[in-house]
Design goal:
The complex is a heterotrimer of chains A (about 70), B (about 160) and C (about 550). Chain A is mostly helical and about 70 residues long. Helices cover about 60% and strands about 0% of the residues of chain A. Chain B is an alpha+beta fold and about 160 residues long. In chain B, the strands form 2 sheets. In chain B, strands 1, 2, 3, 5 and 8 form a 5-stranded mixed β-sheet that branches. A 5-stranded mixed β-sheet of chain B has the order 4-10-9-6-7, with no helix packed on it. In chain B, a hairpin with a 2-residue loop joins strand 2 and strand 3. The relative contact order of chain B is 0.17. Classes of the chains: A mainly alpha (about 70), B alpha+beta (about 160), C mainly alpha (about 550). At the B-C interface, helix 1, strand 7 and strand 9 of B face helix 2, helix 6, helix 8, helix 9 and helix 12 of C.
Chain lengths: ~70, ~160, ~550
Amino acid sequence: MSMHGVPQGISNPPPPIAPAAVAEAEAKPAGAQTPGTLVLVFVFLAAFMLYYFVNWKLLSFIWRIG
Amino acid sequence: MHIDLYERFWMWSAGAICAAFFGTIVYGLVSEGTRPPSHVETIDPTAVWSDPRFAQPGVTANPDGSVTVTAVALMFAFQPNEIRVPAGKPVTFRLTSPDVVHGFEIVGTNANTMVIPGYVAQFTTTFATPGEYLMVCHEYCGLGHHAMMGKLIVEEAL
Amino acid sequence: MTTARRLAAANIGFAVAAFGIAAGMALMQAVSRANLELPWRSPQMYYLSVTAHGVLMALVFTTFFIMGLGVVFTTHALDRPLRWPRLAWASFWVALVGTLAALWAIFWGKATVLYTFYPPMQAHPAFYLGLTLLVVGSWIWSAVIIATYRAWRAEHRETPAPLAVFGMLATIVVWLISTVGVAAEMLLQLIPWSLGWTKTVDPLLARMLFWYFGHPLVYFWLLPAYVVWYTVLPKVSGGKLFSDPLGRMVFALFILLSTPVGFHHQFMDPGISSGWKLLHTFNTLGIIFPSFVTAFTVVASLEIAGRSRGATGWFDWLGKLPWGDPLVSSVLLSMLLFAVGGFGGAINASYGMNSMIHNTAWVQGHFHLTVGSAVALTFMGTAYWLVPKLVRRELELSLLAKVQPYLWFAGMLLFSISNHITGLMGMPRRIYDPSYQGSAIAEAWGGLTGLSALGGLFLFISSAFFLLVMLGTVLAGRPTADTTVAFAEPLEGQPAKRILFDRLGLWIVAAIVLVLIAYAYPLAQHLQMPRFGSPGFRPF
């Protein structure tokens, strides 16, 4: 394919974007572009639940005030 | 209004954890009877020492084996400042103040209450482990606040 | 706009000065708590200093800073001058005179009652009158901001208010509803009593009124910080606001839920029945929700910023954020600390666990993560961004400004973690000397109080850096003409029409109904009970 004297970009053009891929990109909801955030907030949630549950189990359960 | 898919997912999860917090409270309420501590009873703060309820602070044994501790929190001491109670028996504390707001805490336990002049604080708890405990005031009550302390001795029940 | 700029500079300048004095007091307290001998260490000095630190940080620094911020946000986001400029200046002067009167009483040893001023401990009347004037000043400020907004609204019937303004309005609504409580406490109870016009007060009624005000007070501090997180942080870090309508939802929920929660500060009080405490518990657990939503929206805005700077992986966008910018690093670190603070807040709200930590060092560990970090560190970061625009000078000593937030973060972790642990071990808060006559139980707190003092030292150095940067900027910064205050664009563009959450009137009515349900009945019940008043005491 390669030709002498012709710049790479021209002799090796990027593959054309398949119409299917364009359609897929457009069909994908505009959101759902923050996967990192989703993971981080669930790490936060898990830590929160763990912290609360451990305290609850240890403290609230065994001491009763009437 | 449009909400991003991930964020919607997150909001449901956050709603669920709030519901779980509610759930722990309701569970404690229903299965263990754990209500917020409360006792509504008033007293004239200028006449604490002559009031029959507090004229003789100290420990009284009740027929059912439980004990009642009557104590006065004042600037800057507890009266009495040494309290002996049996282990494993319900102990009801009754406290009031003839002067400013005080706190009452037995370090390392859940015996904890505000002591507000004009009101009687009352709560019941059980001390499982015999030993000597530190009793402190946890609400600022003046320059001697940090010196306001006493001793609670939990004795092996006979 | 010149009035707004000068007024904001005056408010923020005074706030920073108050912060500086309070930071000095804090170091002394942390060292005293570790039982290290200092030249002037005495119970008088310690408790006076706790009072001054609390009043200056929690009431003076925050209120003045928020008044300055509100003026800037409103005038810039609406792009119009302040309505009633003279009244706007009056708000500053009234608040200033009140603050000076209260500080006189504190520093002359006549008001060592801490910033919660629970009666029957009685301070000099100047303390109560001064704090009342501070609140009156903030009311005048509220009126000016509302009037400016209404003037804009009259010309823009259908446009939603910019989020920065909507957030400030929510702050003002929370403030106006909640200050009714402290105003009633001051005017009906404490001022006449301290002047000798009445002989006694009901200490529990005073506590109920105080905490009616005292918890929404924390949202008065927090909401302006949220405004910065939502509208300034994404802009400065090069991104967009992830969701504008959810921001509005969050502020609306805070209007609704901020006030009917105060009894969770009084779980351990006698005289309030169990059922009402329970209702306030549920409301408190509900108010966690808007902060959860905030966590997603703000972090997602940052992810958008990082991705627009070329990040493609799961987490590399974190590294692409401008961590060297003092606003960005301050806010990010304050958010991290706030997350941990939130864990503890849920524990505090659950009364079973609260009985273990009520009034222990845990509590001061907790609120130094919330007001002392989420709010104070955000405000410091905001000052780095805003003060240069107000005084038209570039940020001076910017290296110190870069280091300062990290130093605060490290200091606060040391301080706060050690206080949480000593709190669980039962050490009371606000004590001059933790040795309890050599008690073996108290001895166990020793190493941790030392760590807490070390944290205090870090925080003090961090505060000093902040003050140096502020002073350097005002006195020696290179002149600049850049005064643009710009807010983040929403990812989906500016909202075109007003939604349910924009309807402030509706939310205010709903909030008042909830407040009445949560407070009217227990207060009426309380007032009908035969009660005994207390005369005043001055044990300081």
